[in-house]
Amino acid sequence: MALATLRKGAARTLGLFLVALLVVSFAIWGIADIFTGYGRQTLIEVGDTDISPQDYQRAQQDVLRTMSQDAGRALSLQEARAAGLDQRVLERLVGGAAVDTHASHLGLSISDEALLEQITEDPSFQDGTGNFSPLAFQAAMRNIGMSEAEYLQTLREQTLRRQLLITVGEVASSPKAVIDALNRYNEERRILKYVLVPKSAAEAPGDPTEEDLKAYYENHKSTFTQPGYRRVGLIAVTPETVRGELNITEADLKASYEAKKDTLGQAETRRVQQIALPGKDEADKVAAKIASGTDFVEAAKDLGLSESDIDLGTVAKKDLADSIVADEAFKLEKDEVSEPVTGKLGGVVLLRVTEITPGKIPTFEEAKGDIEKELVKEQASGAIFDIHDKVEDELASGATLEETAGKLKLDYVVVDQVDRTGNKPDGTQLEAPAQKELLNGIFVTDAGIENDPIDARDEGVVWYEVLGITPETLKPFDEVRSEVEKGWRGEATRNQVKTYTQKLVSELNSGSKALDDIATDLGQEVLPTSALKRDDITVNVLPPAVQQAFTLPKGGYGSAASGVDEGRIVFQVDDIVEPPEVDPRALKQLVARIGLLYSEDMIAEYFSELEQTYGVKINRPA
After folding, report:
1. What pLDDT is stored for residue 576 in this prediction?
2. Which of 104, 157, 208, 271 is the most buried (most CB within 10 A)?
3. Can you say whether residue 391 is alpha, beta or left, with left for phi > 0 and alpha for psi between -120 and 50 degrees?
4. Helix (H) or strand (E) segment spanning residue 49
C-alpha cells in the first residue's frame, strides 16, 4: 500500500493533520475560455498543470459535503448548483492548480518523511493510547471516499499549497501609525451645538415661469417616466402545490413541536452589563469593592469605563458569543452581580442583569400552523422534483407553458402588467417564489423566448414566459405639469434655505454674528448634541452634518439639511473628544485584524500575478 511504502522510506514514525482543501477564496480569479489544444481527459489547464474529470468530481463531492454541513442537511446536486457549487469547485481547482504550477517552477516539494509525520501524528488516525492506528486511517479513507494513494497525493499537494500561501501571506507587524489612524477614525468624537433654521426663514422662491418648469422637467425626466411593464405567464410549483400528496399526521406535528418547542416563540431576554478585567485577581478586587457597597457602574467608571462601554444591550442567551458567560448571565437574578466568570477564551468578567423579560413558549395549538408549514417545506422537495421533470418533459415535446399547466392540472397565472421592481399599476406587488430572481429573469428575456425555470429552493420551482412588453414612456409635460411645479417649488425652496444658511455661516466665520444671535433672530434655541462618532446620527443632525463636522476644526461652523420640512441647521463644532488609548486586549485584536487584511491583499496580488504568468484554459464542452 502507498502508506506502507512511505513507512519503509522514512527513518522514523511521523504524523499528519488533515489539511482542508484550499482555504483561500479565489473569487478574484479571472478566467478565460480557450477551446482548443486539449486532451480528451483534460478539463482545465493552468500553466503546465492539468485537471482531469476525476479531479473535478472529487472536488465537487468535497464541496458538496461542505455545503451540506453548512446547511445542516444533505443538499441535492441541483440545490447545491443553484447555490453556486460549480463556481466554488472551479475556483478551488483553478486556485490549487495555479499554486501547484508555481511550486513546481520553484522546485518545491514535500518529503515522504514530512508527509508521514503529519499522518501518524494526526489524532484522527490514532488509537486510545495515542499511537497511529492503521484501522482508524482506513476507516477515515472509507468515510471520505478516497484510496490511500489518492489521499497521500492530495495531502502532499495541499500541504505544499498551504505552506506556500502562508509564506506569501506573512506580513510585518502593523505599523503604529496605522493603528493610531484607525483608532482616531473609529473613536474620535465631535460635540456640536446647532440652531434649527426653518424654511420660512428664507425668502420664498416666488412663482416659476414656463421656462423654469420646462427646464425642471427636462432635468428630471426619470421622475416623470412611466416604468416599463411586462405581461407574464407563470407556473409556480410550491410546497403548497404538492401539500395534498404529503402524509403529515397529527403525531408528526406533535413530535416536531416537542423537538423544537424551546426554539419557538419569544426567547427570554436580559439587559446585561459586563466589566471585563485582565485576570482573576483584578476581578476579585472589583467584586469585593462592589460587595462592600460600590455601585456596579461606579466600579466600572473607576476603571476608566463608561456606562456604554459595559452595556451589552438587551440580548437573548444565543446572542452572547461566549457560552460560559451566557450561562452565568442567565442564572442571575435582577440586579444581582456575578462572581468573576472566566470565559472560553480565558478573559475574566463581572456580570450584572438590570432587566429581565421572560420568554414565552407557544402551546402546540398556537404553533401547529407554523410547524405544519415547516414540515411541508421539508417533505415537499421529492414531489416538487417529480412535477419539475413532468413539466420539462411536456415543454420538450413542444407544448406551451399554458398547455403544460392544463395537462398537469397546475395553475397558469397571467400577470397583466408588472414593472422590474414587482409593482403593478394598481400599486399592488407581484407575489411569487424567488421574486428577485424571477423579476431579473423576466426583464432580461424577450417575448416568445423559452426560459429556464427558476429554482426557488425551499419555495419550489417557477416557470415563466414574457407575453408582452410595454416600454418605458416619458409622460407628456402637459400631463404632469402640476407634479413638475410641485417638484420645482421643493427644489427652489431648498436652494433658497441653503443660500440663506451659507450666508449665516459666513457671518459666523467673520465674527459679525454668534450662534446665540442667530438663535435669537430666528426665535430658536441653541441645542447641543452628544459626542458623535463619524457614523452616528441624532435628532436634526443627519449624516451629511456629521461628515462635515469631521472636516472642521474645533469652533468651526457648518450647515446641512435637518430633514425637517426642507429646513436646515447651522452648527458649530463645540468640542473634539480625542480617542482613548487602545486597550491592550483590543490592540492585540486590532493588530491581528489589520495583519489579516494585509495578508489577504498580499495573497490577492499573488493570485493576480499567477493569472498573468500562467494563464487559465477551461474546456467548457467537456
Report:
1. 96
2. 157
3. alpha
4. strand 49-51
* H/E run at residue 461: strand 461-470
Residue 175 CB burial class (10 angstroms; 0-12, 13-18, ≥19): exposed
Cβ(557)–Cβ(572) below 8 Å: yes
Query: ∠ at Cα 215 (211, 221), nearest 5°?
Result: 140
Asked whether the beta carbons of 169 and 602 are under 8 A apart, the reply is: yes
DSSP string, 328-380: HHTTPPTTPBPPPEE-TTS-EEEEEEEEEE--BPPPHHHHHHHHHHHHHHHHH
Q: pLDDT confidence of 556, banded at 50, 70, 90?
A: very high
How many Å apart are CA 90 and CA 622, to the nearest integer?
A: 13
For the chain, the straight-line distance linking the first and the last C-alpha, in angstroms and rounded, comes to: 33
Residue 510: partners with Cβ closer than 8 Å, 6 or more residues away: none
Kindly report the average pLDDT of the chain as a whole number: 85
| Torsion over CA: 19, 20, 24, 27 (sign) | positive
Residue from 291, 295, 269 nearest 340 by CA: 291
Closest by CA to 230, choosing from 419, 360, 5, 389, is 419
List of residues 6+ apart from 9 with CB closer than 8 A: 112, 113
Q: What is the pLDDT of residues 82-129, one digit of tens each?
A: 788 888 888 788 878 888 888 888 888 888 888 888 888 888 888 878
Beta strands in 203-251 (DSSP E): 225-226, 229-237
Q: How far apart are CA 353 and CA 466, in angstroms?
A: 58
Tens-place pLDDT, residues 385-433: 899 999 999 999 999 999 999 999 999 999 999 999 999 999 999 999 9
583: pLDDT strictly greater than 80: no
| 596-608: average pLDDT | 78
Distances in Å between the Cα of 569 and the Cα atoms of 191, 238, 520, 526, 550 are 15, 53, 14, 10, 16
d(C-alpha 384, C-alpha 290), whole Å = 62
pLDDT score of 547: 96
Task: Measure CA 433 to chain center.
Answer: 22
Give counts: helices (H), strands (E), the chain.
21, 17
Task: Give CA–CA dist 9/6, Å, rounded.
Answer: 5
